[in-house]
Structure formats: structure tokens, C-alpha cells
Amino acid sequence: MKNKCFFLLILLLVGGLLSCSKDDLDKYTIVTTVIDTGGTVNPAIIQVDKGYSLVLDIKPYFGFEEDSIFVNGQGFLLTEGGYALDNVSSNLKIEVKFKKTAIWGWGLMNIEWKNDSIYILGKDGMWQKSKLWGVPGEVQERITFLSDGKLLIYWDDKVVGEDDMWDPDETVSPPTVRVLGTVWKIEKLSSNKLILSTDDMQDAPWVENPSMNRSVKQVYFK
Helix, strand, coil: what percent of the chain each, to 5? Predict the structure, then answer.
């Protein structure tokens, strides 16, 4: 009787070990790291079931943008926002690389930025597109930050400023740039998009009520 009970106990233990081994085989570990610096990727480490899918949250620091991602050594180009891992079937080592946008170098300067739209912060705390900003889709303003510190501004293809200066400040976060007496926060600067905002807008023809609406956001594209 003792031998029989001992044999049954061994079977239960072996069965449990086999079950654990099978469960372990159906789970995979994903480890993500950033090459050098430039941003974050999350989750940093996660264990998932076989066939699981997820989207990595990839966020560049200011002054950087997504460059490439390496999945178990194989490289892919990255686009803005994240990276999808579908139907996971193995352990994965993810490495993300960011690249500098060189905001105080050629990333901002000597590029003609075309104003796409202007938004004004309403009393309800929501950003509203300015109704007085030209025809939708039509470029009204173009601005170039010249490397000698001067501004070149076009309005409807007419030069409205060529002796004005611009003054950046990278000691604050986010960095700022002073344009025509107004200090603008550089909210975003990528290879093809520039977003400036200010909480102290001076009088302007497209601000419906300058005394009330002083928070303004401008969106530019190359």
C-alpha cells in the first residue's frame, strides 16, 4: 500500500512539473531598451502569452525624433507614435534608436516654415481654430529663421519683415524663441513640423479679442 501511494505521489509531482514546463513554454519575455538616449519606450519588460499582441509606447524627448527599432537585431524604420508587435511567438529584445533634430542647428534655421493654422485658447479651456485665419488650406505666412539671427517673413508672398531678429533660449523647458517681441514656446520640432505657443500674445489682426485671448498656438510645416 505504501509503495502504491508513493508511486501516485511521484506521478502527481511529475505531472505538475510537466504542466509548469508547458505553461512556461507558452509565455515569452519582451525586453525594451533605448540606444544611447533621446526618449523612452514602454513597457521596459513584460511577460506575455503566446500569440499576444501589443503596441510599444515610444516617446522622443524634446529635440529628438524616432529613428529606428531593432527586433532581435533586425532593424526597421520607425514612424511617429509607436510600434506594434503582433502574435508574439518568441522572446524579444527590442532596441529603439532616436536621432537629434538639432533644434539650434539646421533643424530650425534656414528652413522656410509655412503657417498651416492658428489656434486660440477659449474660455472653456479648449483650443479653437482662428476664424480669421485666411482660407482653409491656403498658406498665408512663411517664416525663415536665418543663421545670422535675422527673420525673413512673407505674408501672402509679400515681404513683411527682413530686418527683425529672433532669439532662442534653450536654458528653459521647453525651449523658447522670441519673435517680434513675443516669447514662443517650441512645443514640437521634428523634421517637417513646428508648433509654437504663447500665453502672452500681443495684438494681432487674427486674434478676435486680444484682451481676452492671449494664449495662441501656431502650427507650421516645411
Answer: 10, 50, 40
C-alpha to C-alpha distances, 28 to 47, 49, 81, 138, 216, nearest whole angstrom: 6, 6, 24, 51, 48
- Read off the C-alpha cell for 104: 539650434
Given a contact cutoff of 8 angstroms between Cβ atoms, the answer to whether 206 and 217 are in contact is no
Indicate yes or no: pTM above 0.70: no
Using one digit for the tens of pLDDT, what is the confidence trace for 107-133?
577 788 888 888 888 778 888 887 655
39, three cell numbers: 526618449
In whole angstroms, how large is the CA radius of gyration of the chain? 27
Name the burial class of residue 101, with classes exposed (0-12), middle (13-18) and buried (19+) by CB atoms within 10 angstroms of its CB.
Answer: buried
Buried b / exposed e along 34-50 (16+ C-beta atoms within 10 A): beeebbebeeeebebee
Write down the domain spans for the chain. Answer: 27-100, 112-221
